[in-house]
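Structure, all two chains, one model.
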Amino acid sequence: MQLEIRGLTKRFGSLTANDSIDLTVEPAEIHCLLGENGAGKSTLMNMLYGLLDPDDGEILLEGKPVHFKTPGDAIDAGIGMVHQHFMLVPVFTVAENVMLGREQTRGVGVLNRAKAADLVRELSQRYGLAVDSNALIEDLPVGVQQRVEIIKALANDAKILILDEPTAVLTPQEIDELMDIMRSLRDNGTSIVFITHKLKEVRAIADRITVIRRGKVVGTTTRHASETELAEMMVGRNVQLTVDKAAAKPGEVVLGVEHITVVDERGVTVVDDVSFEVQAGEIFAIAGVQGNGQTELIKSLLGLVRPAAGVISLVGKDISRHGPRESLGDGIGYIPEDRSHDGFVGSFSVAENLVLDLYRDEPFSSGFSLSLAQVGNNAGQRIQEFDIRTQSAYTPVSSLSGGNQQKVVVARELSRPLRLLIASQPTRGLDVGSIEFVHKRIVDQRDKGTAVVIVSTELDEVFGLADRIAVMFAGRIVGVVDPGISREDIGLLMAGAQVGAHSDRSRAESHRTEDPSTRPDRGAGHE
Amino acid sequence: MSEQAKTEQPNPPDGPNAAPAPRKAVASLSAYLPTVTLAIASIVLALLVGAVLIIVSNDDALSKFSYFFSAPLDGIKAGLNAVGDAYWALLKGSVGSGAALRGTLEKAAPLICGGLGVSLAFRAGLFNIGAQGQLIAGATAAAYVGFTWNLPVVLHLLAALVAAMVAGGIWGGIVGLLKAQTGAHEVILTIMLNYVALQILRWLLNLNAFQAPGSDNPTSPLVDSDARFPQLFGVHLGFYVALLAAVGVWWLLSRTTLGFEMRAVGANPDAARTAGMSVAKAYVLAMVVAGLLAGLAGAQQIVGHQDPLTDGIAGSIGFDSITVALLGRATPSGTVLAALLFGALQSGGIQMQAATGTPLSLSTVLQALIVLFIAAPALVRSIVRIRSQDGAGTVLAKGWNA
């Protein structure tokens, strides 16, 4: 089916999120929509899916104008959407999820499960989407859950499939599999709109690429454009895609982690006997697929979660029993993985958020009273130093773009002397320009002699920043490798295979009660 | 959807160097504008609905409306007259004379204190339904100190006030402790403690120590006259104490590290914890201060009136305080204004009943309607078409999500 968008415009107050967008998706093509966060990609797709009402312009299917009031209208017209956050019921089977909302019944209200299962089987065979129709969603890995979402859309006879940042939650291998699925769908006549800000993926799969910047289409190109060209189109200026850094000069051991085990509220061991050391002046990156214990490991380092066993030491001092306040006071800087959840208070102003963990110290407080003048001064300095784009220091952080919100968090954490910087997914959801900025700051911090721990699911980031890479799988560190390792090898490690020379086979092969990668909700980003 | 819209907004074009100082004033004023408009619109709508009730309860207007179709002007005129008379009496009874104004301010005083207690808890993310119980605890303590102890003039009043605040603070603090230690929901805790406080008061009033000499009624003796609020510029001192409390709460919330912690915990407890704040400490202290303020409201009931301690001492002030806090958007200045409005409605309502025969319950209905409209901002907006703005109504939703 051909989809055409003509002059589509959406305004939010004084802000034009989509400014007369023109876009044509031909039948059976993979059309990439590339743009920074906040460029207006999601707004555009939400209008296409009936979630937002356009202010101007029209949508045409096969040359006929259509108007969607609700997602139901869009689905009926043959548009399917796979959201970044899956809309699945974890305790239902695959077949039950697929029939959800369009249940087939036998007689009076008796569900016809067999028919749903048949449908799933047929679709999965036709498009090569391997999935067991009777499996419970919660038992499936994230990549397979995504397949279920795609099957759900296909079951609604989707002729145009919108995939909103589908690769954010996948391992490199799963991304390859998804690309195969996308190709097979295309070859079967489905058009795909693939939303992303990752240049590599775009170049691997797109038939055509449309780049959006600040709500406007800046151009349409093909996958033969170079990454640098694409990045320039996205950001509007020359961007440095690789991190520029000198060799590390590691000093004394700053962070010592010995045999740390963390058990969550449900009694599941999420971090399993993890040990490592980080030296001053080096960046130690922890790679791995989301939900393999990285979140809990980092929280235990800061004292937000108490480890069940093991010792954490900072420059030789045991800090295993410290809470976050003592840890911050000892010179640990922390950039949390989910900034809007843990990193800032949305309703607080930029100025207030810039002192969220500094307000109790000089010069911001003298005893009990808070010095608003000092808080304002500090904000003025940081806003300039970190180029935070905000209307004023007194604007609520919730009204800033994701990149600027992250700059607020980074600015706050780097504005005091640090011994150890822990940054979890420091650039998640950020655009190319902000990533460049944050990476530079992190490397600067390393060069000042701070020990740095980075947790990232983004391989580009890991390879770009790390001086040493640890890979976590199922709560364990399955290998500590040199950044010279190949992408394939690290991908295998992330999937739990044993290739690294440093890994401990006997431990990793021991019995696991639960595979954390099957938990769909774990720490998925809120972008 | 608003969330979606927000994350998709490109950066504002303004550079980082835009002067922050003058913008702050403009920003904060325009930020309050929709709130103020909403409050005024709610009051106006409530008065309109009230007008219908006045007409319906007015025999003269009603009889003229019975032949509305033959002479519609008669009915309309009579109706307008009835409404005009009633609201005129309400206005006169609340601010029309020195005595009326005094009644309004003295009725407002305990509402200010109680409302501040609820507002402060709101800001820390706690829905404090327990002002009533904290107020009873405070009133009981103030009365006991007032009628049993013998102290010099100024000291006696101070002792009664302090006793009330301590008792209220403890009553509120229990909630904070239980919430912080066990995770129990403060709404359930405060509602239950309201009953506990009331029943303890009833039991105390059956003891000889609390009963007026020579009487078996569950009524205490009057407090000593030197433990009462003296008059100052025609209003008892309690009103000024209430204003002072409002300034104190404002200072606490906006100018102290503790207030910063309370607001951070109230707005995002996870981020507060990550930033090294103690969520438990914020909860406990917020409830202690909230209880202390409600306790002060209880003292107002004892040392501001000529009334003995009875089991009806709290009236509905504890619950009206919640309303006042909601109407005042949980800010100290808003709470004071809302309490003044409610004081005027209550004080003027009596005058309205005397002058026009409109039942006193009408002013209660007006209060309820105002809050109803405030709590349903979308409804008011659709009626008066205020530009949609985030935030209205979130105060109410907050407590349950905590």
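Chain A touches chain B through 65 residues (CB under 8 Å).
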